[in-house]
Amino acid sequence: MSPERIIVPLDVASEAEAIALLETLPEVTFWKVGLELFVNSGPGILKILKNQQKRIFLDLKFHDIPNTMAGACRAAGRYGVDLLTIHATAGKEAIAAAQQAVQEGAASVGVAPAKVLAITILTSLSARQLAFDLKIPLELPDYALQMALLAQEAGVDGAVCSPQEVAQLRQTCGDNFLLVCPGVRPSWAEGGDQKRSLTPAQALKAGADYLVIGRPITAAEEPKLAWNRICDELVGS
Ligand SMILES: O=c1ccn([C@@H]2O[C@H](COP(=O)(O)O)[C@@H](O)[C@H]2O)c(=O)[nH]1
After folding, report:
1. Which of the residues 50, 54, 64, 92 is marked catalytic?
2. What's the complex ipTM?
3. Atom of ligand 1 nearest to the CA of 184
4. For 116-151, what is each residue's pLDDT tens digit?
5. How far is CA 77 from CA 99, 100, 122, 153, 175, in A?
6. Is the pLDDT assigned to residue 161 strictly greater than 80?
7. How far apart are CA 17 and CA 39, in angstroms?
8. Whose CA is nearest to atom 13 of ligand 1?
9. What is the residue with the minimal CA distance to atom 19 of ligand 1?
10. Is 9 near ligand 1, meaning CB less than 6 Å away?
11. Which of 87, 96, 186, 219 has its CA 20 to 30 A from that of 149?
12. What are the structural domains, with CATH classification, of the chain?
């Protein structure tokens, strides 16, 4: 398994903390910038990552009406990041508008367009929460699959799903649909707020293209040791 298939989130509150994490883990090639860091410190971190030749997953999870999604995605497309997220529940029209706008934004500044990923259902939600809190009358794996199919029909490049649903999505959506899994937990790590986890080896075996692994590495007493342990456990996967 190539360590390049592990994406580590920069879930910190400032650019300075993000830079410190980059320095602690120079072997990580793919970083995720999410809401906490982006809202705190803006797009400057993207330039820093690019200057270090890192790959970037911009995980801002846009969810709005088609016109607003298009505007946000056109702007985000100009950053030249590798991956970008929207919510599938924004609907087919908004998903298609987002996909097109990313292409337009990227073309306007001559960068490669980000691959757009649709969030199927957040990995922090359980089947029980889906049924009782969100009142969705579908089994969770079926709901995740329906959201992935909606996104695929609308023309995006892939989806974000939990490792527990990835095998079914891979089988139905095919090998060319990118599947990225957060909610991945080594056997020795705490689950935290993640509700539908598998281990890194299980998630890859089930068909994930990329794994997002955050706190088991970044909140470890020694992040470098945690990273090495995960990579060692994946040898031969
Ligand atoms: O459904 C989703 C979508 C995105 N995420 C993000 O992934 C990381 C997971 O971090 P951990 O520390 O490994 O739990 C985090 O940045 C989330 O915003 C997700 O967990 N689930």
Report:
1. 64
2. 0.99
3. 13
4. 999 999 999 999 999 999 999 999 999 999 999 999
5. 9, 10, 23, 21, 25
6. yes
7. 14
8. 214
9. 182
10. yes
11. 186
12. 3-236 (3.20.20.70)
